[in-house]
Structures are given as structure tokens and as C-alpha cells.
Amino acid sequence: MRKKILFTSLMLCISISSIAKNIEVSSPDGRIRLVVNDDLTYDLYDSERLLMDDARLQMVFQDGVTVGSDTKITRTSVKKSTESIDAPFYRTQHFDTSYNELTVKTGKGASILFRLYDDGMAYRFVTNFKKKAQVVVNEVADFNFTGDYQAWLPYSTNDRKPMAMAFQATYDHKPLSQASDQLAFLPVTVDCGGTKLTIMESDLEAYPGMFLKADGHALKAQFAPYPTEFDYYAWRKQRYVTATADYIAKSQTNRAYPWRVISISRKDTDMPVNNLVYALASPNRIGDTSWIKPGKVAWDWWNDWGVSGVDFKAGINMQTYKYYIDFASKYGLEYIVLDEGWYDPKSGDMLTTIPEIDLPELVAYGQQKNVGIVLWTVFNVLDDKLEETCKKYAEMGIKGFKIDFLDRDDQEAVEMVYRIAEMTAKYHLFIDLHGIYKPTGFNRTYPHIINIEAVFGMEEAKWSKADEKDMPLYDVTFPFIRQQAGFTDFTPGGLRNATVKDFQPVYSNPMTMGTRCHQLAMYVVYDSPFTMLADNPTIYMKEEECTRFMAAIPTVFDNTIIPLGKIGEYIVTARQRGNKWYVGGMTNWNARDLSLSFDFLDKGRTYTATIMRDGINADKVATDYFYETCTIDCTTRLDFHLAPGGGFAIIIE
Questions:
Q1: Do 402 and 338 touch, CB atoms closer than 8 A?
Q2: Pairing label, strands 335-338, 9-15
Q3: In whole angstroms, what is the distance from residue 17 CA to residue 25 CA?
Q4: CA dist 367 → 99, 305, 317, 395 (Å)
Q5: CA–CA separation, 82 and 84 (whole Å)
Q6: What is the predicted pLDDT for the residue at 1?
Q7: Which pLDDT band holds residue 70 (cuts at 50, 70, 90)?
Q8: Nearest of 262, 99, 97, 96 to residue 195 by alpha carbon
């Protein structure tokens, strides 16, 4: 792996006696400017336009020490740095980034670091107190905007305990002054009149995650209190918090706290490929990544083990899973998942399978077919016997775990994620995290985390009505917001496609909102190294053309660009893998015409494009599509008509 390279030069180091009233630092290109005021509030500018003013940042410790706003500045320094970052399994395999960093020391054994990038800013607290341990009572992060701007807020779905939920919600899009009095989880985007700011966090470790609540023209942070007592839900032995302390974190005195990240996007097409969260995270801690194999996976749960036309009773049994393995092998899919039910979830014992499952035999059958097996489990169930479980299943030949139902991001929950990541890496088991908080860069720290949910995924189609949850709208909104933070395990691939008039929630034979090609495009548009085919093998084998097309799209790419896009309306993504390109386009429920240039292709070369586009009748029959091939080059421009909820997908070679 290429080592990170830092080029650093000291630009300014002055004592408190000579500090000006305001301290300024700019991005490398000079367009973004941060002014730190003498009371340690800050103002944020883009191209001389004030976006946020008097924004407060503060940490309050139990012994009465306060760091941040209203604290006296004793010393400052500025440095310039460039980093060269290898990014295995990310949306690009490598990128360089430059920033200017301002360090503000407060004289209490604490500093605040501000970093200005060309596409955003970030800050974090760093402490070096004399005591061995420290209790954090609260953190203040007030993002004070200069106007009543439009915001995209994903609210908690648990009114009674808003910090205990799966971090899955559609966006409430309205002015800040009209926002609900509810907690929103990150990322959150605010449109400051063309320039969009997205608030995220990175390097969240041994500390609770951030929520935001609207207050006038501001968004103010709240954090889950430290948990002190727990109980278990009977069905899955999922642990939940029953009592909390009057503080948010127990902390080491010598440490860096999470980065508070604000990306700044002047074009919507820059948003899905913003790399700040990844760049600010701690580097790889597991070393060699050659054992990690992303890929596609045949999934059982969404289609309710719904195979048909067979001579056995489908369900959680050997015949059904061998059928899934046969399907995966036929189409070159790398994995199958055994989702909930392979062990008795009520028992909380994932070391013991149900009688209907002979796991060693299933692993051996998969090995014969070149198909690996991934096991579903609950976070705390795995954590309770962590090393014993990892050792047993690694020796058996299991490839990884899909881990579910954390549903919190207090400090204890975050520590559990890191503990599991360390142990699974030790035994070369990759992990797909579900029921979890938004990504905070932990996939850089632990590259064997190859997917993350925290998205209102396609499973919601099983119980959502089209007039209640607008999935095509969400499908072309979250890539601009949530995807800035990291991977999205949306679980696409449904082939029972429906128009807005025809869609109904159906549990065992679920539909998808939008067209067939809208689904195909998801395999390109969404960052997803471990990608599920959510529908059942029987349907896939009847739809050979579409299934072969989906199976041919890789899950890891060398480069990603967004040629066209507008948040909430449409998106076109192009990804390169070797000498091939893959393009996906999607729209909301509005039909639209898009003209796509292929100027991203190499000059002087011709390519064959295999195109799947909405059929002429896809506005009424959502499964209708048209398959074609043509020759293109970098001068080609093609026009696409997208049906309501429609899309297109292209393989270029």
C-alpha cells in the first residue's frame, strides 16, 4: 500500500500578545475562508459570501473545564499539507487532497484544529489534560446560517426515544424556520442559495455521534448520553439502553475528538463524490487488504425465501440455500447471505444453528460452486462471544458477517463497532453493517467494512405505500447527501417493478417503485462494494437478459464521476474499472429527457456500448425496457427519455 505523504510548512506561529482580534485561514484555492473570532466563534465564507456567522463550538468537562467558545486563545499556528490517500474498495482507488490547518491553543491543555479544503472545512478538539481520565458533560456545535435556507433533514423515526432507531428515514425538505422540532441524524444538507453545505462527522471513535435540531436559522447539536443500564428485546436478544448518565462520554485525557465536517458544494454533481469524511478518518489499521473480496450476493430476506417451481418447500433449510448457491454460481455472484433464522434469534446463540441447517455441509457445497457464505447476526449477540464466534466461523470457511440492529450511536455502541471491527479483521472476516449509524470514515480505518446501511433502503418497499414514501424521489436525493459519508447498502435488484398507480406494499412478493431500468441503474449509481441482488432466484432466472446485465457490473471501481445531476430530480453516474466504463441514470417520478456526452472516454478509441433503457411503454408497464448496442467514442452524445421513476444503464467496453 502506498504510504501517506505529508508536505508541511509552518506559516504562522504567534503568541497571545500579538494575536489579532480575528484569525483567518483560507482553503488552498482561496475560495473558502474561515474567520475565528476572539471569543472562539467562527464565520464561514465562500467566495466572499458569508454562509455561517458566530457559529459556536465548545466542550464542557465534568471538572468545570470548558474548551472552545468563550475560551481565551493563547497561541495559533497554521500549516499547509497535502495527503496522498490509497482508498481500497472506495469510489476511487486513490486520491490526493490538500488543506490549510489552523491550530488554536487555549492554554488549558486543549487545542482546536480547523482544516480548510477546497471543498469544505472541518474542526476537532484535541486535549492533553494532566488527569488520567476525563468525563465530557456536553459538546456544543451550533451551525448558525445567515438566512432561512432550504434544508434536507432526515428525522429520527422513534418519537419516544429519538436516539434509538435504525438511522433510516426519507428527507424533510423545507426552510430551516419550518423544520420540525425533531432530532435529525447526519448527514444533513442546507442550500445556502446555490452553495450547498452538508454537515457530517468523521473519525468518530469512543464518543457518541451527533444529532441536529433546527432552531430558527441554526442547526444545533445533541448527543446521546452515556448508557448505564441495559435490557434485551426477547425476539432477537437485541440489547437496548434503559438508563443513562448525566454526561455524554468517558474519555482519555490525551486524545483527538471526532471531526465536525462541513462540505461545501457549488455544483450538485460535486456532492456524491466529496471525499472529506474518508480523508479525515484514521488510516488503515489492519494492514494487508488482499484477503478482502467485495462482490455481489444473492439475498434471501427481501424476497422472503420466495422461490417457486421447485420440488421442495422453500424456507430456511438446506435445499433452499443450495438453490441460492446454484443460482449465484450460475451468474458469477460471489456470495449468498443466510439472513435471520439460521440460528434461533430468541436464543441469542449464534454458535448453534437450527436443526434444518448443516452449516459445514453448506459451506462445502458453496466452495464446490465458488460461492462464499455470509452470516447475519445481531451486534451484541456477536459481541458477547466475539473471539469464540469469529474463530469458529473463520475456521469453518465463512467469509463474513452481516451485522444488524445496533440502532444507537452512544459511546458504548460506537466502541462495540470498533471492537467487532478489530476482531473480525484478525480472523479475516469482512463485515456488512446494518441497523447502524451513518458512516464516519470507519471503512478507511477498517477496509474490511465493505458496506453500511444507514439508508432508507429497498426493504422499506415491503411495507410503504407510494403516497406515503416516495422512493424514486429518495433514490435521487440520498446519493447527493448520504453518499458523501460513505457506502450505502440499499439492496437493489427488484424485478417486480411498478408505476406509482400500480405499486402496493407486498411482503412475500415485494414490488419496487419505478421502472426496471431504474433498478438496473442503482448498481452503478450507489457506492456499494458488497451489493445484494434482492429478488428471488426463480424470477432472476426467468429474466436472463437483465440478470446477466446486473451480474456483469462490478462492485469496486477505479474512478467515479457524476456527469449530470440535480438533487431530488435526477442523477447520472459514470464509473471506470480498467478499460471499461459503467453508466447509470435515474429520475424521480417526473419523466425527463437527458442528453449525455461521453467526453470522459479516452480520445482516439472506439467503444461498444450495451444499453438498457426504459421501454416506450414503461410509463404504464414499469417492467418494459429496451436493449440495444451501439458504437461510441468520446465525441458521442446520446439522448435518453426516462419514464416516470425511470432510468438507464450502460456497459461500455
A1: no
A2: unpaired
A3: 19
A4: 47, 22, 18, 14
A5: 7
A6: 35
A7: confident
A8: 262
- Residue range 177-181: average pLDDT? 97
Q: What is the phi/psi pair of residue 56, to 5°?
A: -100, 145
- CA distances for 636 relative to 399, 559, 578, 599, 640, angstroms: 43, 20, 21, 7, 13
Question: Residue 8: is its pLDDT beyond 70?
Answer: no
Identify the three-state secondary structure at position 116: strand
pLDDT recorded at residue 95: 98
404 vs 340: CA distance, rounded Å: 10
C-alpha cell at 449: 467494512
Kindly report the backbone phi and psi dihedral angles of residue 244, in degrees, each rounded to the nearest multiple of 5, phi listed first: -135, 165
E-strand stretches of 392-495 = 400-404, 430-433, 449-452
591-625 CB burial, b ≥16 within 10 A, e <16: ebebebebeebeeeeebebebbbbbeebbebbbbb
Q: Would you kindly state where each structural domain of the chain is located, as residue ranges?
A: 9-280, 295-456+484-493+517-556
Q: Are 196 and 190 in contact (CB under 8 A)?
A: yes
For 585-603, the pLDDT digits (tens) are: 999 999 999 999 999 999 9
Count of C-beta atoms within a 10 Å radius of residue 43:
19
Closest CA to 275 of 49, 527, 31: 527
Q: Which amino acid is at 530?
A: F
pLDDT-wise least confident of 11-25, 179-193, 499-513: 11-25
**Distance (Å) of CA 140 to CA 55, 337, 429:** 10, 42, 38
In this prediction, residue 64 has a pLDDT band, given cuts at 50, 70 and 90, of: confident
pLDDT tens digits, one per residue of 260-288: 999 999 999 999 999 999 999 999 999 99
Place of cell 455521534: 209
Per-residue burial over 556-572, b if 16 or more Cβ lie within 10 Å, else e, is bbebbbbbbbebbebbb
Say whether pLDDT at 19 is over 80. Answer: no
Which residue is associated with the grid cell 458453496?
366
Is 60 exposed, middle or buried (CB count within 10 Å of its CB: 0-12, 13-18, 19+)? middle
Chain mean pLDDT for the chain: 95
Cell 416506450, located at residue: 616
pLDDT of residue 107: 78
Q: Which residues are catalytic?
A: 404, 459
Q: What is the rounded distance in angstroms from the CA atom of residue 502 to the CA atom of residue 499?
A: 5
Q: Of 421, 611, 429, which Cα lies nearest the Cα of 524?
A: 611
- What fold is seen in the domain 295-456+484-493+517-556? TIM Barrel (3.20.20)
CATH level 3 topology of 9-280:
Beta-galactosidase; Chain A, domain 5 (2.70.98)
- Kindly report whether the peptide bond that precedes residue 360 is cis, defined as omega within 30 degrees of 0: no
Phi-psi region of 474 (alpha: psi -120 to 50; beta: other; left: phi over 0): alpha
Residue 328: φ, ψ to 5°: -60, -40
pTM passes above 0.90:
yes
Query: Vertex 144, ends 138 and 145: CA angle to 5°?
Result: 155
Torsion of CA 242, 245, 247, 251, to 10 degrees: -90
DSSP state of 371: -
Model confidence at 13, in pLDDT bands (50, 70, 90)?
A: very low
Q: What is the pLDDT of residue 252?
A: 86
Report which residue type is found at 615: G
In Å, what is the CA distance from 320 to each residue of 344, 351, 441, 448, 532? 18, 21, 37, 28, 17
Per residue in 423-472, pLDDT (tens digit) is 999 999 999 999 999 999 999 999 999 999 999 999 998 999 999 999 99
